[in-house]
């Protein structure tokens, strides 16, 4: 397989969809008391807890939104596998550039939060001062670590036979898919990073097998529609069963998010089905789509900035509750997603074409 250099707008368009799915998942947390920083006086009036089983159809649908983020993460990571599998060297400048961008954007939010009159606690200030180190956007931290070590993984993959690659992929995927029932990565940021790093390495090994030996499967639209259908049906059925059991068994009642992880096999199947369909379609190139997709990292870091999600997003949730009152969660989520997506995209565009150009030049110095 030859190295891929040109952007395929099928994949770039899917990246745009993926970032929207991730934003929806994050915004859905705003209207749940699962989002622990929401003003206490609003909890009983306007919010519900996604961790609990429910008989309310709207609550259940909002609960399903959490898997959108997992699907989006899968799409982005499969794109990473697709472009890195044939490379044997990383670029230090890319790592430095990502760290610089995350740091400067975080500094910007420190300034904005202070200007809005919010007193930032000492710990929050320190976390924001070193966003990558403290994994304030855990996916970025995981990606940076993974990008640094992927050449070693590729060397290992090259040394094993096709049969052993298949066996290793199957075993690791089974272990990963069952381990989701026993891990709680929310207890520690370090654990969160470690678990997701291992998860992405497993997905990398699995999908690299398909790229190396089963491109006919990846290019089969029919097979991937089946994979996509199984993934969607699996997510809905698993949550219906989990919710039903939760309503009957008290010890399970508050465990509705137990399967909400990047290890969820059905979310992976949905992401893989969508990505494979995008890859299998005739390649085309659209400058606008490619430029919007190139903003994905910035949009992700901006919309889910630590201070923004802790102080400003809950404020916007309270504002919408004052306007629309109780309920109507899906409407609130859609409105907020549109506003934040547009605002993040515009901010990302301005940043990339101003400060982003400077950080790119500074990062390039490490290669000289």
Tag the structure with descriptive keywords.
368 residues; globular; mainly alpha
Determine the strand fraction and express it as a percent band. Answer: under 5%
Number of distinct helices: 16
Uncertain spans, ≥5 residues at pLDDT below 50? none
Q: Residue share in helices?
A: over 70%
Task: Describe the model.
The protein has 368 residues and is mainly α. It is built from 16 helices and no strands. The protein has helices spanning 9-30, 40-46, 57-84, 92-115, 122-129, 138-159, 162-179, 189-213, 215-218, 221-248, 265-280, 287-293, 296-303, 306-324, 329-352, 355-364. The chain is globular, with a radius of gyration of 21 Å.
Question: What's the arrangement of secondary structure elements?
Answer:
Blueprint: H1 9-30, H2 40-46, H3 57-84, H4 92-115, H5 122-129, H6 138-159, H7 162-179, H8 189-213, H9 215-218, H10 221-248, H11 265-280, H12 287-293, H13 296-303, H14 306-324, H15 329-352, H16 355-364
Helix pairs in contact: 1-3, 1-12, 1-13, 1-15, 3-8, 3-11, 4-6, 4-14, 4-16, 6-8, 7-8, 10-11, 13-15
Brief write-up:
By secondary structure, this protein is mainly alpha-helical. The protein is built from 16 helices and no strands.
